[in-house]
Amino acid sequence: IYCQYFQQLRNRKYSTIMFKQTNNKFLILLVVVLALSNIALLSILIFQKPQSHSKKKYREERMKNFLVKDIGLSASQMATYDALYKTHKQSMELLFDSMRTGGNQNFELLGKKGFSDSAINVVVNRSAVQQKIVDQKVLAHFKEIRNICSGEQKARFDSGISKLFFKKEQKQKR
User: With 0-12 CB in 10 A as exposed, 13-18 as middle and 19+ as buried, what is 53?
Assistant: First the structure.
């Protein structure tokens, strides 16, 4: 009986060691897989080009294609458009920079006022005013583009501008 007890004890000891070794191998494998997935994710984030720049470039090219192909602007009209676009882009960048600064101030105000209803209303009203300014600048820019068009081009611009911006929504409704 005494020998059997030691034999069972020794078998348990070896099975526990075997279980720990198997468990350790699994944990090592898991750590390696997680490390590799983290490296892959970081490399994607670091080496992938920012999407916002490609979207901006796509919108710019889409507008130029619309003006040349659909409206039929000449080379001199496109040169005027390029100058208008450059000026508009600079003014919008300044506006968005100030909006970012204002956004930080808005959240500071909300934090100081404990997200009270009155503070929320102030922030919403500020945002509405800023959005109104953005909309006015964009629509004024479209008006400037329209002004460089001839009479026939203006008619094509008027009928085509909504298709340019709402093309995706029209496809989704079908």
Answer: exposed
pLDDT in tens, the chain (174 residues): 556 655 665 555 555 544 555 667 777 888 888 888 888 888 877 777 655 557 778 888 999 999 999 999 999 999 999 999 999 999 999 999 888 888 888 888 888 999 999 999 998 998 999 999 999 999 999 999 999 999 999 999 999 998 887 765 444 444
Tell me phi and psi for residue 148, to 5 degrees: -85, -5
HSE (side-chain half, CA atoms, 13 Å) at 109: 15
The one-letter amino acid at 11: N
Question: What region, left, alpha or beta, does residue 66 occupy, with left being phi > 0 and alpha being psi -120 to 50 degrees?
Answer: alpha
Q: Which two tokens stand for residue 97?
A: 């920079």
Place of tokens 């720049």: 53
Alpha-helical (H) ranges within 48-74 are 51-65
